[in-house]
Amino acid sequence: MRKYVIIGAQGSGKGTQSRLLVRDLDLVHISVGDIFRWHVQHHTKLGAQVRRTMSAGELVSDDLVESIVRERLAQHDWNYGFVIDGFPRNARQAEFFLESYDIDGVIHLDLPDSEVRRRVLARRLCARCGMDYNLIAHRPEVEGRCDVCGGELVSREDDTEEALAERLRLYHEKTDPIIELFGRKEFVFTIDARSDVHTIQQEIRTRLGLPDYTRP
């Protein structure tokens, strides 16, 4: 069983790299962001709370994230292991994770703040079906329209310069100590996230001693 944590700022490619690992290794991808987005799209009470928080450029509270992760991990559908992103959020949670789940490695996707801004501010979301786009790497065939359903592409509510600057400040404030803690236990593998998707995936596998990556 393999259990990995993947850490990186918004736009660093955590979801993409996690999905490629999951595809070949029979792992389960547990994404805190995806769980929250599901709640927002389905207009749940939790989704409304998350939407208000993110629109203000703030991070969802650590306690709420922890409760969501505990509930998800309790489902025990990860027979061969998991890749989790968006957690842990503080040193206490990191210690708990190390003690409870025998982590095999922490993948740190390192991306300069300037590149984070460039990538995040180019993101678009279909207002109808929720399909994600990025005007740098994944442009629609018809400008401003979703390739799947034809819906209008819009910026996310929280993808503004001001909100992003606050999220980056909070990210570094909370995440740098976690990386340092994991690093003291020799778990962290730092990967330059400025390369292309396939190069990054192969680098992750090489560093973790996993089978070579084959492009889909």
Blueprint (SSEs and pairs):
Blueprint: E1 2-8, H1 14-25, E2 28-31, H2 32-41, H3 45-55, H4 62-73, E3 81-85, H5 91-101, E4 105-110, H6 113-120, E5 123-126, E6 132-134, E7 153-154, H7 161-184, E8 188-192, H8 197-208
Parallel strand pairs: 1-3, 1-4, 2-3, 4-8
Antiparallel strand pairs: 5-6, 5-7
Helix pairs in contact: 2-3
Plain-language structure description:
- The chain is globular, with a radius of gyration of 17 Å.
- Helix content is about 45%, strand content about 15%.
- The two termini are about 25 Å apart.
- Strand 5 and strand 6 form a beta hairpin.
- With about 220 residues, it is of the alpha/beta class.
- The strands form 2 sheets. The chain has a 5-stranded parallel sheet, sandwiched between helices.
- It has helices at about 15-25, 30-40, 45-55, 60-75, 90-100, 115-120, 160-185, 195-210; strands at about 1-10, 30, 80-85, 105-110, 125, 130-135, 155, 190.
Count the E strands. 8
Strand content: 15-25%
Oligomeric category: single chain
Rg calc: 17 Å
What form results from the Cα inertia axes?
A: globular
The average pLDDT value, as a whole number, equals 89
- Uncertain runs with pLDDT below 50, 5 residues or more? none
| Strand-pairing-aware structural class | alpha/beta
Keywords:
five-stranded parallel sheet, 216 residues, 17% strand, globular
Brief characterization of the structure:
The chain is α/β, with parallel strands linked by helices and 216 residues long. The chain has helices spanning 14-25, 32-41, 45-55, 62-73, 91-101, 113-120, 161-184, 197-208, and strands at residues 2-8, 28-31, 81-85, 105-110, 123-126, 132-134, 153-154, 188-192.
